[in-house]
Prior knowledge:
The chain has 425 residues and is mainly α. The chain has helices at residues 3-47, 51-58, 60-77, 82-100, 106-120, 124-134, 137-147, 150-169, 171-179, 181-192, 213-221, 224-255, 259-289, 295-316, 320-334, 337-347, 354-388, 392-401, 404-421.
Amino acid sequence: MSDTASEKIKSQSVRNYALGILVIVYTFNFIDRNILSILLQSIKTDLNLSDTSLGLLSGFAFAAFYATLGIPIAKYADRGNRRNLISISLAIWSLMTALSGLAQNFLHLLLARIGVGIGEAGCSPPAHSMISDYFPANKRSTALGIYSLGIPFGIMFGLFAGGWIDEMFGWRTAFFIVGVPGILIAILFRFTVKEPIRGQAEGKVASENQPTIYETISYLLKKKSFRHLAFAASLAAFVGYGAINWLPSFFQRSYGMPTSDVGWYLGLILGLPGGLGIFLGGYLSDYFGSRDVRWSLWVAAIAMGLTAPLYYFVYMSPTANTSLLWLIIPVALGNFYQAATFSQTQGVVELKMRSVAAAILLFIINIIGLGFGPSAVGIVSDILQSEYGKESLRYSLLIFASLKIWCAFHYYMAGRYLKDDLVTN
C-alpha cells in the first residue's frame, strides 16, 4: 500500500471516529434536554405545577440561556479549540442534569434547567464547525445528518430510561442516572478526538482576520436563502419541540397510558423513524442537491408540507394504538429538514464564520422553536381547559401542527435563492 493510500485511510478513520463520538455526545445532549418531557406528569403531581409552568421549564427557561450563550461561545470556537470546548460543556450540562434530581420546588428545577441550557450552549456550534472541516461539501449534509441522529437517539433513550426509572424509582432518580455518565464521556472525548485544521476538507486556508458577531449576523441577513431557511427551521422546531415535550402527557391524559408504556412506544417512534428521517433527509439533500442545489432544500419543503395533514389523525385518533401508528410517518418526514438546514448554513458563510453562523441559526431556531413551542402549547392548553377539560392538550397540539404548511413555503423560497448565496471560493 502506498503512503498516500495509507494516509487517506488514516484520515478517514480519524474523521469517522470523530463523527461517531460526536453522535454519542449529541445523544447525551438530547437525553439530558428531553428527559424532562417524560417526567412532566410526575413533576406536576409532586410539585403541584400548572401546564404553563411546565411549559416554561421545558421551553423558555432552557432555550433563553442555551440560545443566547451559544453565540459568544461560538465566537470563541471560531478561533479556539473546539474539542476542549465541547468536553467542558458536556461535563457542565451532565452535572446540572444530575442536580435536577435534588429540586424541591419550581425555582430549584428552574435553576437546574438553566444550568443545563448553559452547558449545552457549547455543543452544536463547534461540532458543526468541526464536521465541516472533517467532511467536504458534497458529503456534509450526510455527515451532519449522521451527527443529528443524536437527536432521535437521545429522545429515544431518554424516554426509555426516564419512563422506566420514573415508574420504578421516581423522577428524581431518573435525573441522577442519566446525568452522571455524561461526565465520563466528556473525559473520553477530550483525550481521544483530534481537533481538525480549519478548511482542510475543502483545501481552503482560513484568513487571519476573524469577523465580529455583528459582521457575521449582517453577512447572513443579506442572504435571502438564509432568511427563509432560518424562519422555516424555526417553525419546524416550534411544532416539533412542542410535540416532543407534550406528547408523553398527551398519551397519559387522553388515553390513560402508564409512564413506562409511553416512554417505550414514544421512544421507539421518535428514535427509529425519527432517526431514519434525519439520515434520509441529509442523504436525499446531498443526492438531489448535487444535481440541482435548490433541491437540497426543496426536499425539506416537500416533507414539511406532507406532515401537516397527517398530524390531524395523530391527535384525533380514538385509541392510543391508532394514534401511535399515525405518528410514525410525520415523525420521519418532520426530521427531513435538519441536516440540509445546518449544512447549507455552513455553505453560505466564510470559514471563520462557521461556528458563529451555526450559533446564530440555533439562536433563532431555539428562541422561536424550543423557547416558545412548549410554552405556547402549555398556555393554549390551560386556556382551553375550561371547555375541553383533560382533552385541552389534544387540541392545543393540533392547532400548532398546522404551521408545518407555512414552514414548507419558506423552505421552497430558501431553495430558490440558495445557488446565488453559496460561497464557492
